[in-house]
Amino acid sequence: MVAIIKTGNSIRQTFHYNENKLREGIAECIMAANYPDEAINLSEKQRLNMLLKLAALNENVTRNAVHISLNFDPSEQLSQSDLKEISQSYMDKIGFGNQPFLVYQHHDSGHPHIHIVSVKIAADGRRIETQNIGKNQSEKARKQIEIDFNLVKADERKRDSFVIKPAMVKANYGKTETKRAISNVLSAVIDQYKFTSVPELNAVLNQFNVAADRGSEDSRTYKKGGLNYRLINERGERVGVPIKASDFAQKPTLKNLSERFQANEHKRQPDKNRVKNTIDFALLGKANTTLEKLTNQLRREGIETVIRQNDAGQIYGITYVDHRTRSVFKGSSLGKSYSAKAIQERCAPHENHPAYEHLNRQKLSADPANANRNEALGGFYGGDLRSSSSEIDAADALFDPAKQDGSTPSQLRSKRRKKKKGLSQQL
Predict the structure, then answer these.
(1) pTM of the entire structure?
(2) What is the DSSP code string of 226-291?
């Protein structure tokens, strides 16, 4: 089992990330721990406002959202009952067992995994400490749960089992040594990776000091449909002599690769969601980040980000190499939100960016300040201000937050009356 813990400054954003998956039919809310009712009986608004109610107890805590993902080996077949038990055990062990938390089972990846959403503010308004929780409490919890539930141990599982060694660039480039070095890399990459074009193939090969070269468009090699392979150094500079594709035993010619392109397009489809979700999760809750931070985060998850720039340093392309699923994707093939342009914008988002338009709409619809007064004060079970039901009143008191994400709805703010000065004071 692999556990990933993130904290953020927006409970709404963390919550809606999972609720959007639910609406798309690729996730289920399987548990609402420490809520007054089962998850299936709670509305979206009730699930959210229970968390907001606690967050409102301590305005000084800005990073009040907690988002955890528990990831299991693809070989493990876990029932929802198992996932609930694991969730409760994990939250108990990291000190969040008494907090309200929601558990979502996602079905959008090649391995079983769940997401847990909670809040860092306790019922008494105390801030729950999460400093170093990942390497301290979470690591101990993970290891114990692997034993208790007989799970595949993350320490024994090679998270990055890719063992191809880079073709070593030496001072003397003898043709035999160069050919052997390139051949070793080609044998591993072409057989194992799912790429659909020469640039995507190069996105992998370049990481091991090898490049496939078609030549310039007006060159004889390009016009004849030829393909050469050559070594490159760490700076991406060509070194050594190029070798024709037909000279290798694997025959990695452009014609033969083209046949693989079509087959790989179909084979890599199940792996798309893992890359997209990893990118989304890395950017979730980040008010402002950098492309470098994103690439480092993806690298820790086994995804290498290959960025293409022109001579002026302008980024015009991005490719993702997932070393765990052995799939390669050009950014735009994953969707507009993952293209080079969109990723740069998402790394420094602003309120009007299209990628966040749906989130803004959700904020508006979920914020009582934008609803009528009756809805804001009348509770979440369809009651109104005149309702005499004790059950509804109790539910309202439990769910309805006095403040949401640090701000009080304008309808609920009390207005301070100005004292009128007496006539004697005015004179």
Answers:
(1) 0.54
(2) --EEEEE-TTS-EEEEEEEGGGSTT---HHHHHHHHHHHHHHTGGGHHHHHHHHHHHHTT-SS--H
